[in-house]
Amino acid sequence: MPLEILLISQNLKLADKLEKLLAAFQINTRVSFEPLDHLLQQVSGVVWDLTTTKLPENDSELQILRSQIAGPILLLDKKQRSVETICSYLLDYHLDDYISGEPMNEIVARIVQKIWVYQNKDNLQLNQQSQESENLVVGHLKIDLSKFQVNNGNKKLNLSPIEYKLLLFFVSNSNTVLSRTQIASAVWGNTTGATLRIIDTHISNLRKKIELEPKNPQMLTTIRGFGYLFKNKGTQKSQVN
Length: 241
Fold this sequence. Notes:
InterPro entries: OmpR/PhoB-type_DNA-bd, Sig_transdc_resp-reg_C-effctor, WalR-like, WH-like_DNA-bd_sf
Strand order of the largest sheet: 2-1-3-4-5
GO biological process, one term: regulation of DNA-templated transcription
CATH topology of the largest domain: Rossmann fold
Shape: elongated
Largest sheet: 5 strands, parallel
CATH superfamily of the largest domain: Response regulator
GO molecular function, one term: phosphorelay response regulator activity
CATH class of the largest domain: Alpha Beta
Number of helices: 7
Distance between the termini: 40 Å
Protein name: DNA-binding response regulator
Keywords: Activator, DNA-binding, Phosphoprotein, Transcription, Transcription regulation, Two-component regulatory system
Helix content: 40-55%
């Protein structure tokens, strides 16, 4: 899926500058005055211009925004806000950066770097996990990274390559609502209509294998209208005996 940033701003000059500079990094720019008019889960990140467009006053809208964007959310501002306000943006709503008064080249560099981190976080996490441990224990599941093997309790699961990759993607993005587009991009490498149509089938098959009660799933749940959520209270690591 091509990388694309959603710029929320009414400043057309800012939009033009960002579009030209980000194009050099193969990142497209989409501009909107009203972010909720777009399918936010289909963009690689959000740049919010606070000088022309206010953040939602409703806390729940900000929380939904954060849960639906599997990429960085950066705030641009001309005037520096209070330390308490900035800390709230970063700690309460988990936005990624607050930029005030920096030159355009630095703004672009921050956007590109943060997108890179999000795009590569699965590989970074799995590489770190494989270095520290050969096994991951997720609830009743035990994942042997060296053998590409998953056990449900004492039962060895026969996962297909796609199901195994799906499971690792969900584990790496635990407790985050993931849209079908995000899943298709990460696991299949594309977001064509054909891919989106088969996602539900593959997830249903994976659920039958990893859930103790597939008809009443507790780990891999469906969030109607949004996508899927993999609930994980904590991943444990252990060495292979």
